[in-house]
Design brief:
With about 250 residues, the protein is α+β, with helices and mostly antiparallel strands. About 15% of the residues lie in helices and about 25% in strands. Bound molecules: 2-oxoglutaric acid and fe (ii) ion (FE2).
Length: about 250
Amino acid sequence: MTDALFPRERAEVAPGAVHVPGWLGPARQRELLDACRGWARPPAGLRTVRLPGGGTMTARQMCLGRHWYPYGYARTAVDGDGAPVKPLPAWLARLARDAVRDAYGTGGSGADAPGTPGGSHTAVRDDGTYGIGDEGTYGVADSGAYDIALINYYDVDARMGMHRDSDEKSPAPVVSLSIGDTCVFRFGNTETRGRPYTDVELRSGDLMVFGGPSRLAYHGVPRIHPGTAPPGLGLTGRLNITLRVSGLD
Ligand SMILES: O=C(O)CCC(=O)C(=O)O
Ligand SMILES: [Fe+2]
């Protein structure tokens, strides 16, 4: 009921960090969920990530394109079963580009309406670069294609501590897609793990893009709200897909 009274709107959480609620429609969420179930199977499937300090991450993870481990990228699951990482499909790389366009433009057409132009104020320029207004390209202009996906699965008790996505060489924005249970996503600043930060509720289908001045901001997931996934989706817990440009050869 609250949804109907107060529709959630696109919001710039920090400069270059944009939340687009409901960007993925129900059909697109189900497609992504099905794809994730396939990628989660071995080889190089879902794994528990061990941290150098001896702890483990509570969110379990799998990767496409390149394998992320603390703290770098490899072509094989070096801290898992050692198998070659699965390729990032072209459709997922295109989805990332569309996400950047829609987050930094004004069209908000959503991923269920492919090809819908972003509107007269779209931030996609003639030379193919993006930006909010005239503030800059936020690192997209010179970047190559989106070539990495990190996919995190959170059960009810999983969290992610405040960290920066800093193992990529490209300044291109990080694209984050959420499926399943709602979470609290904490978006902070580039200096410290602490305040100031903004807590954003990410629900199934929501998009977050963070680039430009926010590309290296600390962020984390302090909490999952159990049982909040859309009833028809058939997922217990939360999946998050972050898409990145590696800038690696
Ligand atoms: O689950 C999320 O929303 C954030 C994931 C994240 O920060 C990461 O994979 O680096
Ligand atoms: Fe991150």
